[in-house]
Amino acid sequence: MAANQEKVIETRMGERTVDLSKVLHFPRGLIGFENRKEFVLLQLQEDSPFLMLQAMDDPGVGLMVADPFSFTTDYEIKVADAEQKLLQVEDPSQVAVLVTVTIPSGAPERTALNLSGPILVNYGARIGLQVPQVDTKYPSKLFLSDLLNAQKK
After folding, report:
1. Would you give the DSSP letter of residue 18?
2. Which domain holds residue 106?
3. Who contacts 10 (Cβ-Cβ below 8 Å, separation ≥6)?
4. Considering its fold, how many domains does the chain have in total?
5. By CB atoms within 10 Å of each CB, which of 17, 61, 89, 117 scores lowest?
6. Nearest to 42 by CA among 76, 8, 71
7. What is the tens place of the pLDDT at every residue in 50-76?
8. Where residue 31 sits, what CATH number does that domain have?
């Protein structure tokens, strides 16, 4: 078996070496970045629940993401048959779920998870897809401070 190929890319966090076997293909791109199809997940810090979903070809396109289930267990998504087909899965439970994270400048206490546009990843096939949710019971943003306050009660 051939050795994994690596590529050095520029990211929002500086230069990083990427294992090309870890690159994810997004056939539809991401909302706002439809022309970007190749991304990689980069760990921010060893113990951090946050990752950077970094475009392979544009250092300015990197979205902070997290597994929403690290913060709440009460989150369900709807995935249509066509989206499951694109992801090459028969059941949505076969994919990892990520959501984008927003940290407002100068207001880290307003850090929020975007629950309305989850990103699904089939790591086996290296395919990703953003699946906007409509008619959902969740607010578009879930503030981490609200979650922490609810846990203290």
Report:
1. E
2. 6-152
3. 59
4. 1
5. 17
6. 8
7. 999 999 999 999 999 999 998 888 888
8. 2.30.290.10
